[in-house]
Amino acid sequence: MKNMDYEKLAADIVKDIGGKENINTAWHCATRLRFKLKDESKANTQKIEDLDGVITVVQSAGQYQIVVGNAVANVFNALAKQTGLEDEVQNTQSQEKEKNIINRFIAFISGTFTPFLGALAGAGILKGLLALFVAFNWMNTTSGTYVILYAAGDALFNFLPIFLAFTAAKRLNVNQFVAVALAAALVYPTLVTAASKAQTLHFMGIPVIPTTYTSSVIPILLAVWVLSFIEPVLNKFFPEAVRNIFTPLFSLAIMVPLTMLVVGPLGSSVGNVLSTLVSTLYNFAPALAGAIMGAFWQVFVIFGVHWTFVPVMMNNISKLGYDPLLPILCAAVISQAGAALGIFLKTKNKKQKALAGSGVITGIFGITEPIIYGLTLKLKRPFICAVIAGGIGGAIIGGFQVRASSFTLPSLLAIPTYIGKGFVGSLIGIAVSFVLGAVLTYLFGMSKNTNQVNDQNLDKLVAPVKGTIIPLTSVKDEVFASEAMGKGIAIVPTDNKIVSPVSGTVSAVYPTGHAIGIVSNQGAEILLHIGIDTVKLDGKYFETKVKQGQHVSQGEELIAFDSEKIKAAGYDNTVMMVITNTKQYEVDSTNETAADQNTVLTLQLLK
Q: Is the pLDDT of residue 114 over 50?
């Protein structure tokens, strides 16, 4: 989104989404703006998808998601600034009750992990790199450098309950600092030491099961969920004058012991069951598990249900010390990057080629939404090729029983976290996924309708007048130069005859003769405008040769005008040719500077 006006895009999105008043909550992930709207029917999805800078719109898991790509943070910052949502506490509970329980659960998990997923991935990669350095004897675990860097990478995971408490509390609309204090109590050094020594503490005579909650996921999520029921009751019980003190006081006094006695052990038990279940299924047929997850992971992403796996994978690392799923998912991600490479090598469509080229880079670093929604899913066959490649690569990784030692986003950067059992298998599986995705897409993924220019959807426009071609952006008229009306070219005329650049129908004839509109046989809407501010001549020096509704052939005379007299009268005589429905086309302009009867613009229909 280079040179994109983020402020304008954000303003257009807010307008087309139904206005600020229709936004309940808004946040973003690596590539998507995510909204909880009060009424999704008020959002003009088609209009949003047509915006420059928007790849597509996805409505899933109770969220209205606008896929923007790598510039999503800039767009979100502009949107938050314009709407003031960053300063507001949004009450989402009443609206979320209207959603089914599955969508509510997915939205909760997504909203909890998304805000710090980047930091989580970065910390995981750092831990993986340190493991790599140790394996190559570039560093030893007793050095001060290693200890400090390991602390930087491991701190987020060690104190993970605190981060989860903060974001979960925001999702559930409870006091975030009370939730953080609750989480901090779970990882308080004295309690952690007692649990590590299997020392049983007693609370009012009731024994507390010695459990360590560092790096845990499920216990704190359950605890904050219980807090979301207790806090409103306390708020109603205490008068407003003392509520800010007594509600936190009693929340902590109730929730910390309750979590230690009941909620925490229950959450740990649930986590143990999930880890055991995943391990049992995986160990039964690791290659089959790899094939299924490698093939269908991106399908899970499309429907938004992939978030349900995140706490499971993080719980595996906490309970088992490793996770077998993350390396398999890397094959699924890299296969999409391979498919993008196949499209890049095969397609003749310039827009597809540009998107595919950038998609290869973003894909290998774990960002696949622009590839999926902009290319593979839209073209269908490449997505199927990527699914096949991801399944085969995943089967190889599963067969080698590769394990991830730390949580991070599946990408090439995550490879150091796979060091250990089956590491070579991860390299083979990832390489197979990428190469096979590219080869299958190149050979079978691109039909003639997608990898070749379709002449039926092509308009080749000739110059409407002889002269010198100049960029439309350089004309001395802000409306035309800004391309607000559409893309096109401008010509400084050396002739006094305007001809039709295409075969089509005259859609508009201006009484003053200074402009004319044409719709080509293929549907391109073309405006020819002679001079700047020449409407003030009131028809002087212009003679129209055709009528509205008349069909004309390419090269047929439309208007006769006196270029020199227009110039002598003090007006700029530059002729502008603008495609007013530009968004429906890929516009390719000539590199020539002399305008004659050769093609000066080529329009390829995109829709």
A: yes
Parent domain of 589 = 458-605
Report phi then psi at 221, rounded to 5: -65, -40
Convert the pLDDT of each residue in 214-246 to its tens digit: 888 889 999 999 999 999 999 999 988 888 999
Angle formed by the axes of helices 101-113 and 160-172, nearest 10°: 130
Please check whether residue 91 lies inside any domain of the structure.
no
In a domain, 453, yes or no: no
Is 451 contained in some domain?
A: no
CB crowding 518-546: b at 16 or more within 10 Å, else e:
bbbebebbbbbbbbbebbebeeebbebbb
Last residue of a domain, one of 241, 270, 299: 270
pTM greater than 0.70 (yes/no): no
Q: Is the pLDDT of residue 302 over 80?
A: no
Cα distance between residue 542 and residue 496, in whole Å: 10
> Which element (helix H / strand E) includes 207?
strand 206-208
Per-residue confidence (pLDDT) for residue 575, from 0 to 100: 93
For residue 27, the SS3 value is strand
User: CA-CA distance, 192 to 197, in Å (whole number)?
Assistant: 9
Contact 318, 218 (CB under 8 A): no
Where in the sequence numbering do the catalytic residues fall?
Answer: 29
Say how far apart CA 492 and CA 495 lie, in whole Å. Answer: 9
> What is the reported pLDDT for 434?
97
Band (280; pLDDT cuts 50, 70, 90): confident
DSSP state letter for 177: H
69 confidence band (pLDDT: 50, 70, 90): confident
Which pairs with CB-CB distance under 8 Å and at least 24 residues apart come from 247-252?
Answer: 247/175, 247/178, 248/175, 248/177, 248/178, 248/181, 251/175, 251/178, 251/182, 251/227, 252/178, 252/181, 252/182, 252/185
Q: Is residue 424 located within the same domain as residue 549?
A: no
Domain co-membership, 72 together with 201: no
Q: Answer whether residue 144 is part of any domain.
A: yes
Q: What is the CATH number of the domain that holds 55?
A: 3.30.1360.60
Q: How many domains does the chain have?
A: 4
CA–CA dist 25, 83 (Å, integer): 11
What is the rounded distance in angstroms from the CA atom of residue 387 to the CA atom of residue 381?
10
Q: Which of 398, 414, 445 is the last residue of a domain?
A: 445
Q: What pLDDT was estimated at residue 84?
A: 77
